[in-house]
């Protein structure tokens, strides 16, 4: 087959492709760094002709053009699998909603339960010699999504890294409806984070001390996981492996420091496995055409059964709030939505199933509110309306700058005692009093 001739025959304009969308359609916008640009603008230009178009994607770097049109809720709704800060702000406009799901379930959801998708628009890397368009650092759930999609329009971006190694990380030209040669925008970037705070460093130190040589790492996004990564890069640890949901800048630093070999991985030996990646240009340059890195679908990377096969699996993630029962809220603060369920619970469970595995949920003990007052992140019970990301039965290690405690097998009074021991000192007496009211405090306990 002459792929170049086929490519030329499928070239079209964003305006022509946008005509495929009809009122009432489900339209998929890909994921994270391959969210479309020109196709989005062309669809937005048609807003007056369309009503009830349901768009779907996640982890946006900027507000899509379709969500900035007048009376947006009459024309479009944005349905996010995992919200970025941009999407969080969009909620107040009345046309943006979160779709709660464990991230690992997305491929099966698309294949078995999702309504048929009429059109998919997303960015890809340039076609290779064999007719394949690579998804970039976004294998995630895209192949499963495309199995349910009628019309597929790809927007080619010369700046999209070509991410190798796994399965379901691209689409063949024979499956593409139309090709748009994009304006090659810079891939969306997440800052690598500034210098870690003293709190970040204190938490990171406690965690790094628990990591053995040959461990396999999963890092979440945020200042504390980033601080852990920086500390690992400067440590004496060796022969580490990577198996993670999100590939972040910290992994690049650890790899370039010579700490990652994957030599002890029981599966995917020598490979750094991830479902998607986002960070600075340093990260995209590192992933591009790098056979050491393995781009794979999220139902593989995040499956607790897969994680369980990797000995000494170390999972490190953030929390927004904890309560005295050991419940963890990582996706909302009360009714204020922040991000999403993601894969945190999958890795908390998978790490515990791993021989020698440990999961760490970390946060600062307190934070300053808008009025400048200090507020404890550890509460007697979670704030009304809070969403529990990790149930009390699943949490393993909880970490703040004041210490690390193990929740496994601890009764309610032991949990309260341990969690209060890592709370900010200013709030400990108050938490003890609240624990007594909740009947989870023993009078014989040290105060």
Helix-strand blueprint:
Blueprint (H helix, E strand, L loop, with lengths): L2 H8 L3 H5 L7 E3 L9 H7 L8 E5 L14 H4 E5 L4 H6 L5 E3 L7 H7 L4 E8 L7 E3 L7 H5 L2 E8 L13 E3 L5 E4 L16 H11 L7 E4 L3 H11 L7 E7 L1 H8 L15 E6 L3 H7 L5 E3 L2 H4 L2 H4 L5 E6 L2 E3 L4 E2 L2 E2 L2 E2 L6 H10 L4 E5 L3 E3 L5 E3 L1 E2 L17 E4 L2 E4 L5 H10 L6 H10 L10
Parallel strand pairs: 1-2, 1-5, 2-3, 3-4, 5-7, 7-9, 10-11, 10-14, 11-12, 12-13, 14-19, 15-22, 19-23
Antiparallel strand pairs: 6-8, 15-16, 17-18, 20-21, 23-24
Helix pairs in contact: 8-9, 9-10, 15-16
Structure explained in plain terms:
The protein is α/β, with parallel strands linked by helices and 447 residues long. It has 2 domains: 3-181, 3-Layer(aba) Sandwich (Glutaconate Coenzyme A-transferase); 198-437, Acetyl-CoA hydrolase/transferase C-terminal domain (Glutaconate Coenzyme A-transferase). The protein has helices at residues 3-10, 14-18, 38-44, 72-75, 85-90, 106-112, 142-146, 198-208, 223-233, 249-256, 281-287, 298-301, 304-307, 344-353, 412-421, 428-437, and strands at 26-28, 53-57, 76-80, 96-98, 117-124, 132-134, 149-156, 170-172, 178-181, 216-219, 241-247, 272-277, 293-295, 313-318, 321-323, 328-329, 332-333, 336-337, 358-362, 366-368, 374-376, 378-379, 397-400, 403-406. It has an 8-stranded mixed beta sheet, with helices on both faces. Helix 8 crosses helix 9.
């Amino acid at each position: 087959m002459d792929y170049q001739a086929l490519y030329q025959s499928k070239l079209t304009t964003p305006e022509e492709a946008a005509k495929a969308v009809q009122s009432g359609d489900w339209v998929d916008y890909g994921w994270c760094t391959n969210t479309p640009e020109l196709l989005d603008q062309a669809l937005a230009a048609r807003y007056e002709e369309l009503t009830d178009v349901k768009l779907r994607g996640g982890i946006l770097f900027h507000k899509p053009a379709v969500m900035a049109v007048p009376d947006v809720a009459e024309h479009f709704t944005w349905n996010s699998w995992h919200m970025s800060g941009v999407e969080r702000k969009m909620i107040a406009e009345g046309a943006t909603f979160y779709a709660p799901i464990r991230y690992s379930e997305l491929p099966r959801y698309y294949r078995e339960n999702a309504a048929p998708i009429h059109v998919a628009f997303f960015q890809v890397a340039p076609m290779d010699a064999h007719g394949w368009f690579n998804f970039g650092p976004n294998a995630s759930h895209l192949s499963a999504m495309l199995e349910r999609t009628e019309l597929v329009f790809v927007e080619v971006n010369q700046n999209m890294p070509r991410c190798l190694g796994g399965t379901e990380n691209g689409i063949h030209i024979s499956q593409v409806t139309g090709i748009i040669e994009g304006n090659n925008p810079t891939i969306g970037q997440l800052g690598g984070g500034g210098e870690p705070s003293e709190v970040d460093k204190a938490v990171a130190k406690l965690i790094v001390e628990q990591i053995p040589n040959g461990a396999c790492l999963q890092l979440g996004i945020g200042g504390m996981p980033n601080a852990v990564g920086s500390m690992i890069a400067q440590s004496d640890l060796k022969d580490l492996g990577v198996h993670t949901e999100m590939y972040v800048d910290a992994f690049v630093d650890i790899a370039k420091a010579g700490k990652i070999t994957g030599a002890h991985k029981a599966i995917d030996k020598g490979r750094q496995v991830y479902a998607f990646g986002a960070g600075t240009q340093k990260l995209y340059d590192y992933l591009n055409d790098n056979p050491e890195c393995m781009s794979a679908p999220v139902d593989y990377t995040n499956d607790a059964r897969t994680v369980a096969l990797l000995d000494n699996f170390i999972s490190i993630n953030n929390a927004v709030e904890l309560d005295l029962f050991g419940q963890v809220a990582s996706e909302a603060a009360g009714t204020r939505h922040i991000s999403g369920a993601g894969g945190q619970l999958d890795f908390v469970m998978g790490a515990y199933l791993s021989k020698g595995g440990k999961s760490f949920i970390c946060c600062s003990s307190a934070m300053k509110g808008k009025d400048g007052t200090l507020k404890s992140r550890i509460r007697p019970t979670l704030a009304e309306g809070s969403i529990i990301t990790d149930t009390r039965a699943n949490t393993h290690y909880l970490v703040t700058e004041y210490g690390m405690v193990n929740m496994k097998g601890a009764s309610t009074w032991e949990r309260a005692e341990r969690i209060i021991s890592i709370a900010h000192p200013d709030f400990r007496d108050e938490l003890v009093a609240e624990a007594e009211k909740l009947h989870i405090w023993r009078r014989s306990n040290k105060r």
